[in-house]
Amino acid sequence: MGDKPISFRDADGNFVSAADVWNEKKLEELFNRLNPKRALRLAREKKSNEKADKEEK
């Protein structure tokens, strides 16, 4: 487990690190559920960045 802090035990009683449980996809879903406008903002920023990249070329 390295230097990851132990956060809780799983159903089998083994220690589980939060870093092992909360992967990028699950965090993204959580952030979008807690802040519904976040997904819209990220899409808007992505579109803006793509437009800026096209204008540079």
Layout of helices and strands:
Elements: E1 6-9, E2 15-17, H1 18-21, H2 24-34, H3 36-56
Antiparallel strand pairs: 1-2
Helix pairs in contact: 2-3
Task: Give descriptors for this structure.
single chain, two-stranded antiparallel sheet, 57 residues, alpha+beta, elongated, 63% helix
Question: What is the element string, with H for helices and E for strands?
Answer: EEHHH
Mean pLDDT: 82
As laid out across the biggest beta sheet, the strand order is 1-2
Q: What percent of residues adopt helix (DSSP H or I)? A: 55-70%
Main structural class? alpha+beta
- What is the distance, rounded to the nearest whole angstrom, between the alpha carbons of the first and last residues? 46 Å
What count of helical segments does DSSP give?
Answer: 3
Radius of gyration: 18 Å
What does it look like?
The protein is of the alpha+beta class and 57 residues long. It has one domain (6-56). The chain is 63% helix and 12% strand. The protein is built from three helices and two strands. The chain has helices spanning 18-21, 24-34, 36-56, and strands at residues 6-9, 15-17. The chain has a two-stranded antiparallel sheet. Helix 2 (24-34) crosses helix 3. The longest helix is centred in the C-terminal third of the chain and has 21 residues, at 36-56. It is elongated, with a radius of gyration of 18 Å. It starts with 5 loop residues before the first strand and ends with a helix.
